[in-house]
Design goal:
Elements lengths: L1 E3 L10 E6 L23 H13 L4 E5 L13 H6 L12 H7 L4 E7 L5 H14 L4 E6 L4 H6 L8 H21 L6 E4 L4 E3 L9 E2 L4 E2 L14 E4 L4 H10 L2 E4 L4 H17 L8 E5 L8 H14 L2 H12 L21 H10 L7 H5 L1 H4 L5 H14 L7 H6 L14 H6 L3 H14 L26 H13 L1
Parallel strand pairs: 2-3, 3-4, 4-5, 5-10, 10-11, 11-12
Antiparallel strand pairs: 1-2, 1-12, 6-7, 8-9
Helix pairs in contact: 4-6, 6-7, 7-8, 9-14
Bound molecules: flavin mononucleotide.
Flavin mononucleotide binds next to strand 4 and helix 11.
Length: 481
Amino acid sequence: MSTSVSSSPGRPLHFAAFVQNTPGHVVHGTWRRLTGRQADANDLRLWVELARTLERGTFDAIFFADIIGLYNAHKGGTRKFIQSGVGIPANDPAALVSALAYATEHLGIAYTSSILQEHPFSFARRISTLDHLTQGRVAWNIVTNTLSNAARNFGYDDLTEHDERYRWADEYVDVVYKLWEGSWEDDALVIDRENGVFNDPDKVHRINHEGPRYRVEGPHLVSPSPQRSPFLFQAGASPAGRDFAARNAEAVFLTSANVETIAEDAADFRRRAAAYGRDGSDIKLFQGLQFVVASTDEEARRKAAEIDEWIDGEAQLAQMGGVAGVDFGDFELDSPIGEVKAEGMQSIIDWVNAGTKGREATVGDLGRFPRDRKPPGRVARDHRRSARPMARRGRGRHPRDEQRDPGHLQRLRGLSHPRAARARAGPEGVRAGNVAAEAVRSRPPAGDPSGRRIPRRLRRGPGRRLTSTAEQKRRTRHVHT
Ligand SMILES: Cc1cc2nc3c(=O)[nH]c(=O)nc-3n(C[C@H](O)[C@H](O)[C@H](O)COP(=O)(O)O)c2cc1C
């Protein structure tokens, strides 16, 4: 589970449930509990029930992590991951999105897709389709991939070098922005039954992208979806990753070890965003936290202790090393992790180092994290906070409900995202398309000088389901360029 941190009093906390379409996500071994539901991950009903519960609890989003290969080696191989269900089986999260949207009304649905796993053209097409099907509630967690097995699954010899992965990601997002923002003008979809015109051919543009890795002609095959570009999550921790997030992300995951480092990290992300001409406060920050939920403090403590009993420390260690790209399997548990440098996810190592104040972090700290890092007395407070929205059920609407209509994620969107500018920086056809689109945008909402009917869902104004934020944002972006 994650929650955003806010430096200004009065600004609401935001909540995203951090899950994965697998029995073994971040806490391992607990699938063995008789009451555990992790082993039902193949069952759509489990996810529908969870999504509905989160919506009742006024969560902003359900967020699906994902991996596209086995974690990097533990004890020289991958047996431990397979045997203990650490990230395997792992189902495709995108397959759940439309079903969860159908089962809920407002919940944001975020899923992870790596630049490695899919060509940007087909990825852009799929997520635009999902944006239509969810009525603008889908979000993308942009990841570059830290697993060598994943690289080999997609035909590469090994992981691409760390900073090069981010250059790759830059081109990937360039392509998808061009498809989402620059290919179709707002009124290109005509659906004129009388004259037999479905799309206006002068308003659907090729993008003609040519870069080091991709050549994409276009046009985008999907008509403009409610958000056009989906809401964007990212979790860069390195300088290259943070810069990438500062340029592109609307929400960022932090794995800060304590309150002081959260404040430093938040300030750093906001500074970097400002350096790219964005308003730093437009980036929402989600800090990873774990909660144990029960009806009373005592019950929560008992439950936490019971859960701890089931945690498979070696599986935890295997996953931490597997993500970081360091095989800790043969280390003594009391070996210091000190200055370990990881080609995979360095932030895991830094996080554990920062979390053991007053003593040196050891390999054992990585493996036993869920049990040892929980400060005494926190369980009950965490419990009260996360249980509060549920406790209000039946007592009318919670004030936060108002802030979250119609789509929770839209409330998190800022106005300074530069994606349209990037799309317009593309080839001639895209520039022309956007100039024409601007002329269309300046028309009055439902008026049509030619007397032609404008499809209802392309009209601006109060009748449109999407919040005005996205529309305002598009206009603002245009003014900036
Ligand atoms: C909360 C959180 C969730 C993440 N989820 C995923 C994920 O689902 N799939 C993935 O491949 N990487 C995931 N990552 C890894 C990040 O995308 C990124 O590779 C990592 O934080 C290292 O960043 P860096 O390369 O800039 O150091 C996640 C990271 C964090 C902190």
